[in-house]
Amino acid sequence: SGSESGDDGSDNEGSGSDSSESGDGEDEEDSLEGFTLIGNGGCRDKGNTNVPSIEIILGVETLNSCLELCNANEKCTGVEYFQYDNKCQLQETVITHSAGGGDSVQCFERDQGSESG
Question: With a threshold of 0.90, does the pTM exceed it?
């Protein structure tokens, strides 16, 4: 009488951790950090002046890129972004409102961060 206990104790541990995530997660939000949308049209100050831009950058394909350019410039108080022309114009005036321009240009004011510390 032969008792055969066939125990095959071979554990196959397949540890294949390939975490290659190519995520282009670009969330398009209206609330752009550090900027406030004044409205359609060019930026104006309280005297309703169409002030000359301190810098005009062409070939700016996204609004975010335009805002980043403003962030990089100490003088920049806001931007005019022409989405159809991919044109970004940095402003240095105190922006109170926007005027004219239809929906081809939008005026954004840079939030003056309260520096406490």
Answer: no
